[in-house]
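> tool_call: predict_assembly(chains=three)
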Amino acid sequence: MSEVIMPALGMAQDTGKLVKWLKAPGDSVATGDLLFEVETDKSVMEVEAQADGFLTHVSASDGDDVPVGKTIAMISATADNAVATPVTKVEPEQAPTPETMPTVVAMSSTPSTAAALEGGRILASPKARRLAAEDGLDLGQLVATGTAMPYHVSDLKTLRDLPASSAQTVVMAATKQITARCKQAGSRDFMDWMKADGAITVTPTAMFTSFASSAWRVATEAPTIVVQLSDPDGEDTYLRNADFTRLSVPAPETDEDATFVLHDLSASFLTSLRLGDTALPTLSIGADGDSYLITFEFGSDQMSNAQAIAFISGLARRLADPLHHLV
Amino acid sequence: MTDAKTNTEEYLQMYRQMVRIRSFEDQANQLYLSAKMPGLTHMYSGEEAVAVGICEALKVTDKITSTHRGHGHCVAKGADFKQMFCELLGKEEGYCRGKGGSMHIADQSNGNLGANAIVGGSMGIATGSALSAKRQGSDDVTVCFFGDGATAQGLMYEVMNMAALWSLPVIYACENNGYSEYTRTDEIAAGSITGRAEAFGIEAFKVDGQDVLAVNELAQTLVARCRKGEGPFFIELETYRYHGHHVGDINREYYRPKAEEKTWHEGRDPITNFGKWLTTEGVVDQTDLDEIKAEIKADAAEAVAYALDAKYPDQSEVNMHVFAETP
Amino acid sequence: MRQITLSTAVNEAIAEEMRRDETIFLIGEDVAEAGTPFKITAGLVEEFGTDRVIDTPISEPGFMGIAVGAAMTGSRPIVDLMFGDFIFLIMDQLCNQAAKTHYMSGGKLNVPLVLRTNMGATRRSAAQHSQSLHAIVAHIPGLKVAMPSSAYEAKGLLKTAIRDNNPVVIFEDKLMYQDKADVPEEEFLIPFGVANEKREGSDITLVGTSSMVQVAEKAAEILAAEGISAEVIDPRTIVPLDMDTINASVRKTSRCIVIDEGHQSFGVTSEIASRLMEQSFYHLDGPVIRMGAMDVPIPFSPALEDITVPTPEGVAATARKLMAGEMYHV
């Protein structure tokens, strides 16, 4: 038996369109006989038989797009083997997706010494930044002194010479607060719907964790978000990228450092926590009547006002209408 | 046909080599059509007598340079099927460890300095090889194979000029197959091809490239004269390539009529015609010839199967051989 | 120590190597009796004969191709290309054939060939005889590129090039052929890929190639009088390139100017500056500045030609700005 294949006919073609069979299954063929017509990007071409025998096992029909190199029939030496099979449709194979070249991740040089000052960045040479970081110096203070940018290593001397009280590594900024309020109805309806429709129990805590992570991601573009879920009775849990897991599944725990703290007060009598403890941005969500009360505390060195506002607005929107945001 | 040799062994060797080239090319063409061969290749089928007639007049240490249509020269100069197929498929056991491919295939141990993807690109190399031989006092000869299309390259005139000035032992063999890619030779080469060599005072000869005995007789004479320091020489061989410029050049009636192809296939096939001569002269009979063909066909099929199965070079080889070691 | 000109140094290197190894031959235009228009190969044909010192017709692609073929078959040719600008004529034989043969043959064929040519402007030879094109060949894998900055380097690098089993392009500055330097009588070779610290300094690194090394040294003198200590590094070969030495210097000084006579854009200065940015980023107290020839075809008029190449005063001025932290665009 010899194979009849869809030949490679052009430089850029992966498939050929079988226009028409010129022989039928069971027909006798000789080398050189025209077997079928193929459409290339330029014209219609005839393909010749490469062997003598009987056409059989035809697996492509008129009009099919067949990948180049694929066997579409056989030529059998004897008539006995020639099967006038009903022609089966050939599914064009999916062209294999080209392996994507791994994208080179740009090394982002985000030295974390300088505070993210509103309205401006600090321009400094790589060496100045590195030395400042190594020595715990805050380039932000140079801005305050009115030293012209960009900063070079020689400017670090100015920094080092500043009076001791201002040369603190961390600027103790006053704690800021944002509060928000939204109706609980949307969330309750959502939880009920999940139960009824999918027999999935979604807890308020899971919702808060997920929605807060999602809103944080949009507001700050952080790639990894770890929520420190506070538990007054036991140990806090650290949940990673809770917005990436479905609500029906618990978010993965991690031992990475927390991005922000979440107090779920909804099942308690407390409605809000304003404790001025800004080691980490702190979010508390409590129930107040038929609404959720959202309180957020943060330090100016932790995020900008704009980011905080975007975060809380996003969280409130999600809580008010979860279905809209999930779908 | 002239009675150039009286030795049966030599005749059979020539016949064998031509059949080997034809079988190789048939397999290579199939590899392309069944989409198993990376890249493109250029078929030598129809021109076998040129490569074989000339290479049978050379010894192992004589050198040849080849063209993009180089499988014929490679086989004729003593190459092995398996390593050639491996090279075409980019496998580690190929002549160039898979790094050259069809258009750069070289077989250094047999004196094949390489196929060349640049039209006319190996003419300088061939002439330089002849210069080395002369300087080293060896009687080695270099044959430079090139097509009628390469007569359009300035390099040819520069090196023929120097070869003539310095009496270098090089034979420039122009395989005139009537077409330079997709254009007829008479549209790209003004005047006479042999006239070009004669302008430099180089003796130039014309021969029927389909007559292996005539080619061989001429080659023997010129090689002997080269060894005595009477070179360089120029030969124009009239021949024909059955396939298109490259394997994908299938729709070619727009530049070459099918009737013309038929004439050459049926009336001027070098293998058929030499076979007829051998049987008419009583050197062998038809069954012997058929046996030879069958044996070689099987050989080629086995080599292809081997190559398809062979391993690719390890990825670490990509950086190897950019530079040669200097002890 | 004796002092000889760059021209003599090159002549000596070729003669010594040809005495040592009879597979070496010299080929090019007017290399025999005429000794080349720059008189570099004078006397060689008398010693080695026309068999080994071969005059060619004006056929650059032709004799380059012949040299490649000869190199592939047991010879070690030294090709003399009269002007670096003519590299464009031989690009196929140099970059498609010589550079790639070892690789394309899977390591089975070698091309032990040296291409000697020149570079350097301000000779009033105009645009087609004044170019410095080393960056173009350095871009091609398979070619080594050497750039001697004095007679001493010219001899040591050329001998190494001749003994190297790869195609090596060596660019001599055509304006330096009569400049003298200390060159030992005893045999010496300079390895490829080893940069030379020509002057020690602590405030700023000046990396210079070829005649720009002298420009950098003069700039360093000017700066020293102003209290700025400049270190001068000569890479000697750009392929292979010794970044270890350059990095070490820049990490010490934290500032760098790269000076080269190729055009400023897409050239050697860009390559070295980029590598410094990648490899010594956190040690930089200022951007790495490129100073190449202006991106213009080299003009004929002396009034114009001289301003297209870096000068000691220009380098010093740039260095001052770098030191003062004035080099940035917001």
